[in-house]
Amino acid sequence: MSNIFYITQINIDFGVLSTLEEECRKYGITKPLIITDQGIKTAGILGKAQKYVSGLTVCVFDQTPSNPTEEAVRAASKICIDNGCDGLIALGGGSSIDCAKGVAIAATHPGPLKTYATIEGGSTKITQAVLPLIAIPTTAGTGSEVARGAILIVEDGRKLGFHSWFLVPKVALLDPELTLGLPPLLTAATGMDAIAHCMETFMAPSVNTPADGIALEGLFRGWSNIERATHSGQDKDARMNMMCASMHGAMAFQKGLGCVHSLSHSLGGVNPKLHHGTLNAVFLPAVVKFNANAPSLSKDQRLQRMASAMGISTSSHAQAAEAVASAIKDMNKALGLPSGLSQMGVKEEWFEKIIAGAMADHCHKTNPLIATELDYTRMLSESM
Description:
The chain is α/β, with parallel strands linked by helices.
């Protein structure tokens, strides 16, 4: 059985950041904690947001790392608890939004964070006691602003998923203006993250027909605009379409993701300095070719339909698999992203640990084909 939920209030337009205080008050938030990072602060976006909540008592945590950790969650939670904050504002990329979701749990639930991880059976332990969250993305990639999940590195070093409908932000303020200054490589990496979400969720085998439609539209918007957004950063139309693609990917991935993400999550735990979106971009071609063997993909012509959304004409399932994988490699090159894992410093001696993490990841079982250790080894080798 598939459960289908679409529950976040989404305000999307240039300038919607100005509605922040109004949205806080709507949900009874009068003492918010803003969770962000140093890059957002330096770029002046934090100061801009603070001007729009001048009528509230605001605290700030601006030390979110690029891959959010339990240590950061605990530090932010202490500020939250010590100051009696009654809500959270996540301002930044997926890292800040996921960190905020961790704080929503940690500030209101006892015990180690891993207690609430999905693979530890923790989803049902997350209750409505979580703090209300308003999410403001400054990148177009993760879509965490409309998703029920967060990815956090816990104390034992594992990079784990946390999923609960209680974690879905009350409001998502999608203001493409905040992405106009995003550097080209970060635009490319986060954009490919959004595209990976759309592609993986469309390939996932569970039944969620609204998610399928949302994913294909997101893929079309993302694929059609990522080069313009990367190379012409002030192009407002391209930035709006990339923010839409990001939102679509995350609204759709309640259906499930797959091997791209099980590998990226695991490798991101092995080396937290590696960018998640870049890893997704590099893993996608090998995973698409592996998934081509799934009966569900050929039955529903899913690879041909993805190819069509990408503007690729194909006449067969096999041709679509090769064409889509090749197009992704070409796009990565055009965007200036790495051509393989070795270029990112990944070593073959890491494979055993990466594979162990991927096999345990929550995305492993929602791939259209359940990968074996040998399958993962092949995908890693092809991605080097």
